[in-house]
Amino acid sequence: MPYEHSLYGCPVDATLNVISGKWKPQILRLLFQGTRRFGVLQRSIPGISRHVLTTQLRELEQDGIIQRTVFAEVPPKVEYSLTEFGKTLEPVLTGLLTWGEHYIQQQDKQKSAT
Amino acid sequence: MPYEHSLYGCPVDATLNVISGKWKPQILRLLFQGTRRFGVLQRSIPGISRHVLTTQLRELEQDGIIQRTVFAEVPPKVEYSLTEFGKTLEPVLTGLLTWGEHYIQQQDKQKSAT
DNA sequence: CTGCATCCTCGGGGATACTG
DNA sequence: CAGTATCCCCGAGGATGCAG
């Protein structure tokens, strides 16, 4: 029975550590739609470099969110996909999305109320 | 009609920017329970300094999540509480909490499966 | 095509001292 | 009591070049 006093600092921070890389929400959004190759991911996320994309993917893999599949071909081919556990993140991100939309509306109202 | 194609990178990042200060989940947890004075907050969060607590509170205030009430007394007294809008964050954080607990369980299984 | 090594920048967060 | 003002450190993320 973990976290019985609901000191929710720790598990909340754990979740944030998993999803709060600069590009991770975008990466996850793409992978929620299906398996993607490395190059496709890079072209789908304007502004990200190979190095950083690699880093973010490695971290998500380390955290058990995504799977990396290497095909022994020439030229190399690597596919990334969500693990079953990774798919459980979708409703969480949807929650963040929905609240974020409300937040942005709220900010707009603040400005126009000047 | 904002974000119609559900490109949820942006609003998700907006939410993350609001809640992902190092101590913000803890601060919010305390304020979900009710109004708190500055000193009470500091003593409730071991390890945080006044400077950093001030910074995090200012940011949350700026984002419209919390309210700061100053009492013209000696010695000074300042109370912090959630705004109505800030209260809408609670279910979001609860979502992060729940997923974080599953995640921690998952990690434990990984280790013991060695 | 995919990825590692190296170097650098920048800002969040910490330590400390002073103040209304 | 509740801050502000400085200074500093460290790590995430960006740029570039090399490699299997």
TrEMBL record, chains A, B:
Pfam families: HxlR. One of its GO terms (molecular function) is DNA binding. The keyword Transcription applies. Keywords: DNA-binding, Transcription, Transcription regulation. Residues 10-108 form the HTH hxlR-type domain. This is HxlR family transcriptional regulator. It comes from Thermosporothrix hazakensis. The lineage of its organism: Bacteria, Bacillati, Chloroflexota, Ktedonobacteria, Ktedonobacterales.
